[in-house]
TrEMBL record, chain A:
Stretch forming the signal peptide: 1-21
Keyword Signal on entry: yes
Coiled-coil regions listed: none
Region (Disordered): 28-50
Keyword vocabulary terms for this entry: Signal
Entry protein name: Branched-chain amino acid transport system substrate-binding protein
Organism: Neobacillus niacini
TrEMBL record, chain B:
Gene Ontology CC terms: plasma membrane
Topology in membrane: Multi-pass membrane protein
Protein's recorded name: Branched-chain amino acid transport system permease protein
Cited PANTHER family: ABC TRANSPORTER PERMEASE PROTEIN, BRANCHED-CHAIN AMINO ACID TRANSPORT SYSTEM PERMEASE PROTEIN LIVH
UniProt organism field: Neobacillus niacini
Transcription is among the record's keywords: no
Alphabetized GO MF terms: transmembrane transporter activity
Alphabetic keyword roster: Amino-acid transport, Cell membrane, Membrane, Transmembrane, Transmembrane helix, Transport
Length: 402, 287
């Protein structure tokens, strides 16, 4: 038995070695990109490297790809328009992406490598763990974090070079709670994803829910990377007769949870964590009918902004799927960074770029404006008009937030 | 009471899937004498192939499963021929490295071909059945019934047919089997074929209640390892019983102890069983 264990340990070490080897190959490809960048330089066009570290393999790969697609699409648009001009010199963007498998330590190592090899002024990363890891050294190594996470804490730690792109999730607590309490009742069961993010979200919602006089009748979490079936946990949650279920995580498994809850006879409403999107959930459930009584964030495609239909069309042509906010927010983020670099008159002075983010937002072209965001806070977070939606009678209905 | 019965049914559903996966793993253990790390990847391939057959070629669910069994079975055979057979004289660590290599290859392959996103497998058996306040879905009943049928067929095959006995003979003693005139190459290929087929059945049955994605094999493979250790390495009844023990302990543990600790409950059970019977419930040789 002991021998077996050692053998297993050995095997795991080999898994690690293999994964590292996989990392190597991805750097090679980015090396090729650099070559191209250097070629451009000889034609009097500069190259600005933009770093990206996110999950590009493993269970969260689809999420990493969608965020990267947004950044890439914006960069391609800028390059297709002949680049952008800073202080009389033309620059093109070159996205250097590395895989971190959703791990904070890998994200940190990737960022270090990017700094040494590519000197990017901005590194995008789409998970709070990675953002915290990068915040340890980003002010020292001089790069801005393009932070895609609605975790409020990332902008509360006082890091001067962090830009939080999505709206912070605690803004949703009030509208979600109000809607669910008004329409269904005061007993809620918690079944969010078992990630740190899901737990923090749950803790905040629990405090707010109880402050409003509600009761949490069941409090647990679902680990989507370990659970094959949700019937067991749902049976236990529904035993407590909740009026509302708080669910969330990646859209597709979250949709499965909602579907199985309905199969078990649950008639109440759902509070859907901002990580999951209604339109992506619909792809699994087949129609919105199953999600009637849900409250969550407005899907990008159903949003009212004027630039949306055209953006959706362009994205579909390029990637053959409907864009969600993962792609959309990173897309707008990349464009704002470009405008900020223009306004700052520099592509490498990161403090100056940070100081000009507001100007970047002001100068954003109308056809890029797929979100109503006009202001960046002192803390480095984009300030949004929150866009909340409910599902009623099989349709997405916008909900006003005051 | 209703909750108890509902949870027993839930445990039975999930236990059936675990058992099917563990059966394939335990059979191949008889040939390789190491746990086949790539088995989870075969499970994942099974899910994808059934899904592709249904969505792209419009095949009926059962027909798609049949194709999937064949294809994954052949992948298993190819694995044996090109990887494990040449390594049969090598130290066991080589087999393990090779198995992990296959696992990584197949996962990357699936992500390359089908993309990284979650996909949903439609099922013609989505109906909800309510009996005495208990909720079943047709798909779940199907999982339980099909798993039991497959297990009975497999046991009959291994016990009552000549070809089946050769598999057991070879797992007991490869050289001995060779001496009495069993074609060990053929048996090894056959075993991999059955193992792949079982993985495909398990994935195709359980995919409609979850999702299809490149890492889906990891949901079950770790548990399958636990099961075959618990049931006794290489033992067929051990894999079946172990699967159900794990399934029931998860669902009942989540209900009556704590959902957050249900994995611990399963592992405490493993520790207890192994301290009483260190070789597992059905030690080797007791096929």
């Amino acid at each position: 038995m002991r021998k077996m264990k050692w053998r297993f340990m050995f095997s795991m070490v080999f898994v690690l070695i293999f994964s590292l080897a996989a990392c190597n190959s991805s750097t090679n490809t980015s090396g090729d990109n650099d070559q191209k960048g250097d070629d451009n330089k000889s034609e009097e066009v500069g190259t600005v490297n933009i770093g990206y570290t996110g999950p590009l393999s493993g269970p969260a790969a689809f999420y990493g790809e969608r965020t990267l697609n947004g950044v890439k699409m914006a960069a391609d648009e800028v390059n297709a328009a002949g680049g952008f001009e800073v202080n009389g010199k033309k620059y093109k963007l070159n996205i250097v992406s590395l895989d971190d498998k959703y791990l904070p330590n890998e994200a940190g190592a990737n960022a270090k490598r990017l700094v040494q090899e590519n000197k990017p002024p901005i590194i995008f990363t789409p998970h709070s763990g990675g953002i915290f890891a990068l915040q340890v050294f980003n002010q020292l190594d001089k790069f801005i974090i393009g932070a895609y996470s609605s975790e409020p804490q990332i902008t509360e730690v006082g890091n001067k070079l962090t830009i939080r792109i999505p709206p912070r999730y605690d803004g949703y607590l009030q509208p979600f709670t109000e809607y669910a309490m008004e329409n269904f009742g005061k007993n809620v069961a918690f079944l969010p994803t078992a990630s740190q993010y899901g737990k923090d979200w749950g803790a905040k919602l629990k405090t707010y829910w109880e402050k409003e006089g509600g009761k949490v009748v069941y409090d647990s979490a679902i680990d989507f990377s370990k659970e094959t079936d949700f019937f067991t946990i749902l049976t236990n949650a529904l035993k407590e007769k909740p009026d509302v279920l708080f669910i969330g995580g990646a859209s597709e498994p979250t949709a499965k949870v909602a579907k199985q809850a309905r199969e078990l006879g649950f008639k109440g409403g759902f509070i859907v964590m901002d990580q999951a999107k209604f339109d992506e959930m619909k792809a699994v459930t087949g129609s919105y009918d199953l999600l009637n009584g849900s409250i969550g964030v407005m899907p990008l495609v159903d949003s009212q902004e004027a630039a949306i239909p055209d953006f959706v069309k362009r994205y579909q042509e390029k990637y053959n799927e409907t864009p969600g906010s993962e792609a959309g927010l990173n897309y707008i983020g990349m464009h704002v960074f470009v405008e900020a670099m223009k306004a700052a008159g520099s592509v490498d002075d990161v403090e100056k770029i940070r100081a000009n983010m507001q100007a970047g937002l002001d100068n954003l072209a109308a056809d890029k404006k797929i979100y109503a965001v006009d202001k960046i806070g002192e803390d480095g977070g984009f300030e949004f008009d929150l866009s909340v939606a409910a599902v009623e009678n099989g349709k997405i209905v916008p909900i006003k937030v005051d | 009471m209703e909750i108890l019965i509902q949870q027993l049914f839930n445990g039975m559903t999930i236990g059936s899937v675990y058992s099917l996966v563990a059966l394939g793993l335990t059979l191949v253990y008889g040939i390789l004498h190491i746990p086949n790390f790539a088995h989870g990847a075969l499970y994942m391939m099974g899910g994808y192939i059934t899904l592709t057959m249904m969505t792209k070629y419009g095949l009926h669910y059962w027909l798609a499963i049949f194709v999937s069994i064949l294809v994954v079975g052949v992948i298993g055979v190819l694995m044996e021929r090109f990887v494990f057979h040449p390594l049969r004289e090598a130290p066991p660590i080589h087999d393990k490295i090779a198995a992990i290599g296959i696992l990584l290859f197949l996962e990357a392959f699936a992500q390359f071909v089908w993309g990284a996103e979650f996909q949903s497998m439609p099922t013609p058996y989505g109906q909800v059945v309510q009996i005495f306040g208990l909720t079943f879905t047709m798909q779940r009943l199907l999982i339980v019934i099909s798993a039991i049928v497959v297990m009975i067929l497999l046991t009959l095959f291994l016990k009552k047919t000549f070809t089946g006995s050769t598999i057991i003979a070879m797992s007991q003693n490869r050289e001995g089997a060779n001496l009495v005139g069993i074609n060990t190459n053929r048996v090894a290929m056959l075993t991999f074929m059955i193992s792949g087929g079982l993985a495909a059945i398990a994935a195709s049955l359980s995919a409609p209640i979850n999702l299809v994605f490149p890492a889906m094999g990891q949901l079950v493979i770790l548990k399958a390892f636990v099961i075959i250790i618990l049931g006794g390495m290489g033992s067929v009844p051990g894999a079946i019983l172990g699967g159900y023990i794990l399934g029931f302990s998860e669902s009942l543990g989540a209900t009556y102890i704590s959902n957050d600790y249900k994995d611990i409950i399963a592992f405490v059970l493993l520790v207890l069983i192994l301290s009483v019977k260190p070789t597992g419930l059905f030690s080797k040789g007791g096929h």
